[in-house]
Amino acid sequence: MATTVHEPPKIEGQRDPSQSHGGFNSGGQDLVPGNLPAVKRYSPPPASTGIWVVLASITMTFAAFTSALIVRQGSALDWRHLTLPNILYVNTLVLFASSFALEMTRRRIRVVAGGLKADSVDASRWLYAALTLGLLFVVGQYIAWAQLRAQGLYLATNPNSSFFYVLTAVHALHVLGGLGGLLRVIRKMGNSTLRKSTLDATAYYWHFMDGLWVYLLVLLWMKL
Amino acid sequence: MAKLFAVTIFVIAIVSAIPILRHTWWMAEDISTHGAPIDEQMSETMAEAGISFLASQFILGYFIWKFSNPKPGDKIKTFPGGAKAMVWAAFLLVGTEVLALGVFGVKAWANVYFTPPAANAVPVEVQAGQFAFYFRYPGPDGSFGPIHPDMISEANQNFYGLDTDHDADSKDDVVTAEMAVPVNREIHLIMHSKDVGHSFFVPELRVQQDFVPGMDLSVHFTATKIGRYEIVCTQLCGLGHYNMKAYLSVLSPEDFDAWMKKEKAMQ
Amino acid sequence: MHDTAHAHAGQHAAPTSFIRKHVFSLDHKVIGKQYYGLALAAVLIGMFLSWLMRLHLGWTNLAIPGLHLLTKNGAPGDVMTPEFYLQLMTMHATIMVFFVLTTAPFAAFGNYFLPIQVGAEDMPFPHFNMMSFWVTFVAFLVLMSSFFVSDGPTLGGWTQYAPLSAVGQVGGPGEGAGVVLWALSIAIFCVGQLLGSLNFITTTLDMRTRGMSLWRLPLSAWGWFITSVMGLTAFAVLMPACILLILDHVAGTSFFVPANTVMNDQMQPHSGGSTLLWQHLFWFFGHPEVYIAIVPGMGIVSHVLVTNMRKPMLSHRVLVYAMGALAVLSYMVYGHHMFVSGMNPVSSLVFSFPTLVITIPSTIVVLIWMGSLYGAKLRINSASLFALGFISMFIAGGVSGFFLAQPSIDIMLHATYFVVGHFHLVMGVAAMFGIFAGTYFWFPKMYGRMMNETLGKIHFWCSFVGAYAIFMPFHYLGLAGNVRRYQAFAPEYMQPLIPLHKFITIAALFTGAAQLVFVYNLFVSRYKGEPASDNPWQATSLEWSTPTTPPPHNNFGDTLPVVYHDPFQYGVESSTGDYVMQTSPEKASAHDES
User: Fold this and answer.
1) What is the domain count for chain A?
2) Chain C residues with beta carbon closer than 8 angstroms to that of B56
């Protein structure tokens, strides 16, 4: 709907396609008196910035949960000791192994990156290993919950169990989100549209889940 | 249009200030010993806020009047001091003055919250619940009996959950629906909520304090003027919030003793 | 190695089906308009609720014909019950704060114009962007659905203080299902805004076109960028708080309900929860939320003003720094909402000082605007009138902050109408004026037609005078000790204030009716307005250099623009008149800062 009444000011060469494609290096400035500062031609791919934004907001969420735990612990006398199920330590190793597998994938794909299909069968294998181990972690967490329930410790039993279930469940949800990301990487690798930035972002997220888990484990171990 | 705008701003600014200057609607008269610094703080802040408000609205209106509808030949001008002048003005004029206000305000706040109640203060306990206040006086033994939440019952008129059969301290406690205090005696008010959040606000006393369920807080004050005042709840506590109020009677010592005797007889 | 992929980030083909074009669209422009539509629907509902409340406050026993249709038990004989008043109040606040003041200035205008102003084809994650809107839409539906559950929406106020919000049905009407739906709605809303913030931040950082350095972003883009950073951290804290609140309801946990809570003579099955915990989590979000509502307005108003003053701001950078300082400080001051909450009195003083310090960046922003007005060639039109009105309202609402920042004075003013007047002026009316200024300014670009100026001016005069008539008296009520959230004035000392309430009600009905002029103007101008040129205001930023109006699907046609200048090159002599567009290679003037 370009119903133009007054013609807008048109400036010569404003939309000359030849100028907007690499014509403007140092020589370009001679053609025009305007000031084109040395802005990088190339901005980073958004996924590699976006991932830090995502991680920042997840950090804030868990910071909020942490402060809730500390305030709640200090507010009442109903704080009890809770022994963490041992399977959590196994799960930790599984999650680390998954991260390691993803890192191995990245090593193998880096050689052929740039929107290319990973021609190494190895890379896919490691990727599937990462996915399986991630799933295994969630299953392991589920077993931990089942063990606590067997001890009669439910979500509402006492504040310790409440925080245990909430923190581990929210973390597990984030891990499931990461598994979705891994599936997306697998699909994109299959049809050769995987970008390096996507793979990197997924890997950072996945490693961040490790770090977050270790943090939570230490927090729960210390406080519960 | 710009001139109309300028005039409108002038008129609005002045009309807004008139009720403030005339105290048409204003704080109730202070009846506490700690209220004077608060009132002083209030009038100083009002002066500063008022001047800032009027000055900036007038300047805004004047600039709009002066710099709109330019003639064709007019050139734009830049404010002589530039942005630097504005930043300095913000720091020096407004920033320091407001911070100075804050520093002086510490005194008024400390008066209320950083001094412990005197040893001979009259202890009174207030319990807030949906949607009424109840007050408790410790009686001759000077100590409050323990509260048994499971015994709280409106139906049995046991508002505090006192077990007078077993707790010796509870036997002489006096529970009332109205609050009475002797004039010119310091009162140590212990605040306790049995259900949700409430607040204890007596404008004349310059006291407002929330009840925090699960936590017993206390405030202390001295009322200096005999009279009957209203205690209102200022923390949204449910559908009867607007109707949650009680009376505070400030009595002469003799009247207070008489009142206490009468209440005790009614227990 | 050449990474070709990123050049196509956010790029997608123009959709052809109706559904992909107008409903599940990936186009940031359509999403922006959807957000605007949602905000418009929400603001009309919110305003309608405020009318009902005002009528009740002026005439407590007034029967409002048809009121019983809105509620099952809330209006026997069309007279509002106390609980229904509180339910309307809670919904009014929640709708306005979340679905109007957060969506319109930030999500609506930001979605439409941020990518164009940075010179991008779209946001980098269009699918997240689409989800952001639809998730927000679902949140709105969930909130509105609470009108239809058995005992209506929650009555706990938008702050939902625990334990009233956490004890469940026993707390009163709407405290069961109503609160759960409320918390669910807000948690969903947080997800939508986090997705939006992700896109806004990456758009600003990564999608800028050649020559577009950060300092060349127009002030509106800065406003949205700063807001998205705040949104990212604030909503990430509110969401866990809502999750814990929901669990207290549905799972019987005790995060917020302490032991020994007795309601209706019954001990509640909770132990040891912390009521202050909710307040800390809520206000850690709540105070930045105030700035999330107002900072985009500051950006929009700066943009509109500078275009209509025909001269650059005294300092572009100082304005940006001041807005950034507001954002940073907004996290350090939340405790000033809790001065009389029973928090440690020392913390009250600790929170008081940064609150007072906020005066400084706020004053800088206002002084830069006023100093820039000096020597301007000011054009008066609907957009600039609302922008100037914003300044006046921001000052009026800002000075009352002097009082509320001081704990000692807060003893008298806390939870009174003084607070209500303060935040309505500074974040309600001012932010609304920002939205109006933006609408009159950008409507020609969004729809290719001009809005009607006469109607716009009528709208402005009624809103400007009306808003003062409504909200100035709130301060007087507060000074006289009128407690907020009261549906009637039971205490004797409040009786003399009723005539003032009647005056406010009349002013509110009148001012609200004037908003219908705006809605009429929007719809009529959309279809019958005078056709707009590509650059009707002789403005400089990139949205005014799109090849068509409204912009084509990919915003700039075949090639992305190249930027040569700071955003606001006004008051210069050039071949086009008194301005140079950012895309013009023409030599500008000494104003170029970067």
Assistant:
1) 1
2) 366, 370, 395
pLDDT computed for residue A131 by the predictor: 95
Per the domain annotation, does A114 fall within a domain?
yes
Contact C64, C53 (CB under 8 A): no
> Residue A124 is inside which H or E element, if any?
helix A121-150
**C6 assigned to some structural domain:** no
Q: What confidence score (pLDDT) does residue A42 get?
A: 54
C-alpha to C-alpha distance for B105 and B43, rounded to whole angstroms? 12
Domains and CATH numbers, chain B: 2-70+81-113 (no CATH), 122-266 (2.60.40.420)
Asked if the C-beta of A22 comes within 8 angstroms of chain C's C-beta atoms, the answer is: no
Q: Does residue A73 fall inside a structural domain?
A: no
What residue in B sits closest to C471 (Cα-Cα)? B16
How many Cβ atoms from other residues are within 10 Å of residue C56's Cβ? 26
Answer whether residue C349 is part of any domain. yes
Asked if C4 and A115 come within 8 Å (Cβ–Cβ), the reply is: yes
8 Å CB contact of B105 and C172: no
Domain that holds residue C223: 30-259+267-580
Give the orientation angle of helix C28-58 with respect to helix C430-447, to 10 degrees: 140
* Structural domains of chain C, count: 1
Of C276, C345, C375, the CB nearest to B114: C345
Residue of C197, C271, C586 lying closest to A76 (CB–CB):
C271
Report how far apart the first and last C-alpha atoms of chain C are (Å, whole number).
31
Best A49, A145, A160, A191 residue to mutate vs chain C (most C CBs within 10 Å): A49
Instruction: Tell me the average pLDDT across C333-362.
Output: 91
Asked if C82 has any chain B CB less than 8 Å from its own CB, the reply is yes
Residue C592 belongs to a domain: no
Asked if A38 is an interface residue toward chain C (Cβ–Cβ < 8 A), one would say no
- C18 inside domain: no
Q: How many CA atoms lie within 13 A of C292 on its CB side?
A: 29
Q: Which two tokens stand for residue B199?
A: 């607040």
Paired tokens of A195: 């970008």
Distance CA C357, CA C367 (A): 16
As a whole number of Å, the CA-based R_g of chain A is 25
Q: Which domain holds residue A99?
A: 84-223
CATH of the domain at C140: 1.20.210.10
- Give tens-digit pLDDT for C265-308: 899 988 888 999 999 999 999 999 999 999 999 999 999 999 99
Are C184 and C271 a contacting pair, CB within 8 Å? Answer: no
Q: What is the DSSP string of C356-385?
A: HHTHHHHHHHHHHHHHHHTT--B--SHHHH
Inform me whether the C-beta atom of residue B243 falls under 8 Å from chain C C-beta atoms. Answer: yes
- B247, containing H or E segment: strand B245-251
CB-CB neighbors (< 8 A) of C251 in chain A:
155-156
Tell me the pTM: 0.93
A135: domain CATH number? Answer: 1.20.120.80
Cβ of B60 within 8 Å of Cβ of C395? The answer is yes
Measured between CA atoms, the residue of chain B closest to residue C499 is B25
* C367, C372, C481 ranked by CB distance to B28: nearest: C481
Residue C262: list chain B partners with CB under 8 A: 129, 149, 152, 161, 194-195
In three-state secondary structure terms, B127 is strand
Q: Is the ipTM of this complex over 0.85?
A: yes
